[in-house]
Structure formats: structure tokens, C-alpha cells
Write a structure and sequence with these properties.
Blueprint: H1 5-15, H2 21-33, H3 46-53, H4 57-69, E1 73-76, E2 80-83, H5 92-98, E3 106-107, H6 121-127, H7 144-152, E4 161-164, H8 167-178, E5 184-189, H9 193-201, E6 205-212, E7 215-216, H10 218-226, E8 244-249, H11 263-274, E9 279-284, E10 305-310, H12 312-315, E11 322-325, H13 328-339, H14 347-358, H15 360-386, E12 398-402, H16 406-415, E13 418-419, E14 421-422, E15 435-439, H17 447-458
The structure holds pyridoxal-5'-phosphate.
Pyridoxal-5'-phosphate (PLP) binds next to helix 8.
Length: 468
């Protein structure tokens, strides 16, 4: 904890690796990490810091702006500039969106795959032999045969491809490898809540861009890339012109809206992003159970895309495997970081995945699951349309249902034994409330009955007459 202004300034000087705004912001964030500074501590006036550290007041002021943007400090007229109170990082939105409530008769809140639609593991397990299973620290981190299979239908450049422990692990690895405090990133709004939690924990500046059925909307993306930022999660964006470091998108079966990138939209987005240095980070979490074909902006952007494909929804969440391709320098960072942790994803699990991806019966089971998810989605969306509730999106296991009043809709459905997720934790842009996410993929039958309940819930708590 802080002893004196002099001590603080010499502590910052020790941590200052470069005499720039970003360098000073990093010095403060290091000081926060190692206890030089703590929540509530007051920073000395800009002039004092500038004189003592041999920086210009503009540089110090820009560093404070970076820190304010990431939520690390706050300025209040009377108290001056102080270190912000820890916002209690963790999985705040994740828990709000996905916290379990097992008391529902019909739980459509989870976003998880239907266990009955996962391929049967027993055939593949029976065919595995001990000799085929590597057991050394020194073996390749990814089974070469699995790499070959993955490369057959990989939509991005697969020269640098590896396997990690699920899409969330992939996102965590990429974010920690490429993002730094105060960086500006663009996400889809609405967005997968755990990604927002992850970005918030890294204290990056998050800007939301709305999606329609074909993915990120072009004009709002152009505006966001040009700055000033808008729609950020921490509300301090006005005037931010920092370059965007990364654009996160889900190329198909977007969770929660069900949007899937069309080829035309992909070309329009690539055209915009081409003029920037932003990295594209694509999270294909539905993978083989998405109805649309795999797609990536990578080929249109000189392979500047990170592409992630999860096998959790298609082949089983407990395999906890995803594949990820990335430009060489990003892959180098990711694999280096991973070597300091688990090193590789169990090759035993990789071998099971390889079996599932090559066994004709398993391939057929996954294809049938894909068709069944599409059928369930179409039935519920159709039944809702018959009741005057229009649901957009076109793919995936979730539907994004417009409602007049989120809490009223969730409560009404819960009282009837039906679990759905309120839209709020998915929202990035202000004014995007008024939705619930329903995992239609878990609903094998009773579509009319559930649509009756959903349509009535959509109108609960105040009916404006029209649902978007
Ligand atoms: C958009 C999105 N990204 C990532 C994940 C996490 O995937 P995994 O289970 O592979 O970690 C999910 C899971 O629902 C998701 O919906």
C-alpha cells in the first residue's frame, strides 16, 4: 500500500519501461498488481508526475486517460484521480446468464447440446488400442493425423493449427496473448457473456457493434473502426480514438441471436477491416452442428484471422476440445503461453475426437444431430411466428426472443416450470434489452405448447403492441 507521494513516484519510475503514455499506464498497472498501489489510493497531480518522471504533462494525461478507459482509475472533482475499487472480476455475466437452476421441468436456459444428439463414444473407445496412445511429454502436442483431418475443411489458413481445451480456453489464450490493458476491441452486440467477462478482466476497452441475421452490421462497424468509440461496457469512451486491436465475431450460429455470416457480408466486413491493423478473432462454437457452412474472413484478409472451432456442441462438452488456427506470430505467443501451463490437450481425448471425426457412423450421427437442431429451431420459430412473435437469426441451438419486459417474461415462464435466460448479460450496447434466450435445440417436442407460453411471456409486464 502507498506510503508517500515520493515513494509512489519512485516506485512508478522503477516500473516505467518506456517514456510513453502506454508505458506509464503499464507501470501503474504493474504497481497495482504488486501492491505499490491499492484501491482508493490517490494519484499525485499530473504536473507533479510529469516533473518527477521527466515526462510531458500531455503524456501523463494520456496515460491517465488510458487507465480511466480501462476502469483502473477514476477522476472525481473533489478527490482528484484515484485507483478504482476492484470491480470484483470473475464470471459476473457468465453466472447471470448461465447459473444453474435445476428446478425447472423444462430448462431451456442452458445453451448446452442435447445429450441424446451427441455421437456415441463407445464404438470409438472400443476401437482404441493402448499402443496407439502416446504417453510422453515429448510427443507432438497435436496428433498429426488429427491435424490432417482438421485441415480438410478448415475455412481459414490452417498452416498454424493447434488443439486446445475448448473454445473458451482458446479465447482466453488468444486474449491473454494479444491484448494489453487499455486496448480497444470490437465485439458483437449482443455477445456471449463469458467473452465480455474475460475482456473486462483484462481491462480492455470494449466497443459493441450490432448484428443482424448476416452478422456484424457494416455501417456500425465502419463507425466503430473509425472511432470515437461508442457502446462500450464501461461507459467512459467518449472521445476515444485509439486504434482497434481486435474484432471478435462468431462466424455462424451466433450465440444468442442465431446469425450466420453470409459470403457477401464477409466480403463487406473484410473490406472495412482491411484498412486497419485489427486482428479478427472468430469463435465458431457450434462447429459441425451449425446448419451453415464454415466461413472465415481469413482468406479475404491476408490470413489475419484467428479461427476457433469447438467440438463441445457437436461431439461432446466433456471432450473439452477446440481447434485454433492463427497467424504465425499469434500462434507463437499462444503456444509459448501454453507451455507454461498445461502444455497440450490430452492426446487420449484427441484420439477419441479423431475417431469421431473419421468413423462413418459417428459422422452420420453428427449430421443427424445437425438436422435435428435445425428442425427443432424451425418448429419453435414457426410456432412463435404463428403467435405474432418474430424471431430473427437462422442457425444454431438458441433463439433470441423479443419480449416486452425481460424480468417479467423470465419470471412468468419460471412459474410455469420453463427456464429461459434474460437477455441483459448478453447486451453490450445500451438500449438493447428486451430479449430472452431460449435454447430451442433442447426442445424435441411440444413446440406449440412452449410457443404458447413464450408468446404470452413475451407480452408480460406491458405489451407495446409490436415486437421487434
Ligand atoms: C459463443 C461461444 N463461445 C464459446 C463457447 C464455449 O465453448 P467450449 O465449450 O468449447 O469452451 C460457447 C459455449 O456455449 C459459446 O456459445
Amino acid at each position: 500500500m502507498l506510503q508517500s507521494v515520493k515513494e509512489l513516484l519512485s516506485g512508478l519510475e522503477e516500473r516505467l519501461e518506456e517514456p510513453t503514455a502506454r508505458g506509464l499506464a503499464r507501470a501503474v498497472s504493474r504497481g497495482l498488481r504488486d501492491g505499490l498501489l491499492g484501491a482508493g489510493d490517490r494519484l499525485p497531480p499530473i504536473r507533479t508526475v510529469a516533473i518527477e518522471l521527466g515526462l510531458s504533462p500531455t503524456t501523463v494525461s494520456a496515460a491517465w486517460a488510458l487507465l480511466a478507459r480501462s476502469g483502473a482509475i477514476s477522476t472525481d472533482g473533489r478527490r482528484g484521480t484515484t485507483i478504482a475499487t476492484e470491480p470484483g472480476f470473475g464470471s459476473v455475466r457468465y453466472r447471470r446468464a448461465l447459473g444453474r437452476n435445476s428446478s425447472f421441468d423444462l430448462d431451456l436456459s442452458t445453451g448446452v447440446p442435447d445429450e441424446n444428439l451427441l455421437p456415441d463414444l463407445s464404438r470409438v473407445l472400443r476401437s482404441m488400442t493402448v499402443t496407439a496412445t502416446p504417453s510422453s511429454y515429448l510427443d507432438d502436442p497435436v496428433l498429426p493425423e488429427l491435424l490432417d483431418v482438421l485441415r480438410r475443411d478448415w475455412p481459414a489458413n490452417a498452416a498454424h493449427l493447434t488443439v486446445v481445451d475448448g473454445a473458451m480456453d482458446a479465447l482466453d489464450l488468444v486474449c491473454r496473448s494479444v491484448l494489453r490493458l487499455g486496448d480497444r476491441v470490437i465485439v458483437e452486440s449482443p455477445c456471449f457473456p463469458p467473452l465480455l467477462d474475460l475482456l473486462e478482466a483484462l481491462r480492455v476497452d470494449v466497443v459493441g457493434v450490432p448484428v443482424d441475421d448476416e452478422g456484424l452490421r457494416v455501417e456500425p462497424l465502419a463507425a466503430a473502426l473509425a472511432g470515437p468509440a461508442n457502446g462500450s461496457t464501461n461507459g467512459s469512451r467518449a472521445g476515444s480514438t485509439a486504434a482497434t486491436v481486435a474484432v471478435f465475431l462468431q462466424p455462424r450460429a451466433q450465440n444468442p441471436t442465431g446469425a450466420s455470416l453470409s459470403a457477401g457480408r464477409a466480403a463487406e466486413l473484410a473490406e472495412l477491416i482491411r484498412g486497419t491493423n485489427a486482428l479478427i478473432i472468430e469463435d465458431d462454437s457450434a462447429g459441425a452442428v451449425a446448419a451453415s457452412d464454415a466461413i472465415s474472413l481469413g482468406p479475404l484478409l491476408a490470413d489475419r484471422a484467428v479461427h476457433i472451432r469447438s467440438f463441445s456442441k457437436s461431439h461432446g462438452p466433456d471432450l473439452r476440445l477446440a481447434a485454433i488456427s492463427a497467424p504465425p506470430e499469434v500462434m507463437h505467443e499462444i503456444t509459448g503461453r501454453r507451455q507454461l501451463g498445461q502444455g497440450w490437450s490430452s492426446r487420449l481425448l484427441q484420439r477419441i475426437l479423431l475417431g469421431l471425426l473419421t468413423d462413418p457412423v459417428s459422422i452420420r450421427e453428427v449430421a443427424e444431430a445437425r438436422e435435428e437442431y435445425a428442425r427443432r429451431r424451425a418448429l419453435l420459430v414457426g410456432a412463435l411466428a404463428d403467435r405474432g412473435v418474430t424471431v430473427n437469426g437462422r442457425d444454431g441451438m438458441n433463439i433470441w426472443v423479443p419480449v416486452a419486459d425481460e424480468p417479467a417474461a423470465v419470471l412468468r415462464l419460471a412459474s410455469q416450470g420453463i427456464g429461459v435466460t434474460a437477455g441483459a448479460p448478453f447486451a453490450v450496447l445500451p438500449g438493447q434489452s428486451g430479449f430472452v434466450r431460449v435454447t430451442a435445440g433442447l426442445l424435441a417436442d411440444r413446440h406449440d405448447q412452449v410457443a404458447d407460453a413464450l408468446a404470452a411471456a413475451a407480452r408480460a409486464g406491458g405489451w407495446p403492441g409490436v415486437l421487434r
